[in-house]
Amino acid sequence: MKELEETVLSAEDKCNKLEYELFCLVREKIADQIGVLQSNSRLIAQVDVLQSLAQAAYDNNYVRPKITTDGVISIRNGRHPVVEKAVGTEFVPNDTYLDDDKNKLLVITGPNMAGKSTFMRQAGLIVVMAHIGSFVPADAASISLCDRVFTRVGAYDDLFSGQSTFMVEMNELATILANATDKSLLILDEIGRGTSTVDGLSIAWATIEYILKKLKSK
């Protein structure tokens, strides 16, 4: 029994040693071809992304957007690509139009669950999709190039580090105001919500005036 035990234990050690040697051998072989493998991986990843975008466009009736530099973002019968998958034919398409003249700002109002946030996020998503080379969920779209898309959406706090909902919101807003340009698209959902009604409205009003007069962002 003692001899059998030694045989079994030594066999296990030899097996582990051989397995590690084979692993090191495979690792060395791969290292010799790392350039080819990385190049092929990048190509496969690109094909995978393009094929996925093409399949999504085909399955969901997306259209090819027109990319311009005229400052106009025009979306006809746009749809939220995620929400429409959840509600199907019940989703109601809508138009969006922004330019560098009298249509720089859209103020979206209405009751709860009226679709305000959906409309704003939909516009942002369509702009991003167009910029990455994807077809977009709309009947037609003309998208002027943007340098960035900034968003301030939803209520979130960081109480662990001493930041209330209002402080998080103000920090996010400050970052946007410090970095946005006249080529940026801003999605601002309920600025000033974390404080009193009068103070919140004052912050929102001042922010919009600063964006329009100073930054000239959409």
Choose one word for the global shape.
elongated
What is the C-alpha radius of gyration, as a whole number of Å? 27 Å
Listing every helix as H and every strand as E from the N terminus to the C terminus, the arrangement reads HHEEHEHEEHEH
**How do the strands of the widest beta sheet line up side by side?**
1-4-2-3
How much β-strand is present in the residues?
5-15%
The total strand number stands at 6
Sequence stretches where pLDDT stays below 50 over 5 or more residues: none
Mean pLDDT: 92
In helices, the fraction of residues equals 40-55%
Can you walk me through this structure?
It is a single chain. The protein has 218 residues and is α/β, with parallel strands linked by helices. The chain has six helices and six strands. The mean pLDDT is 92.
Overview in brief:
With 218 residues, the chain is of the alpha/beta class.
Q: Key terms for this structure?
A:
218 residues; 4-stranded mixed β-sheet; single chain; alpha/beta; two-stranded parallel sheet
Topology, please?
Elements: H1 2-32, H2 34-60, E1 66-68, E2 73-78, H3 83-87, E3 94-98, H4 116-131, E4 140-144, E5 149-152, H5 165-179, E6 185-188, H6 197-215
Parallel strand pairs: 1-4, 5-6
Antiparallel strand pairs: 2-3, 2-4
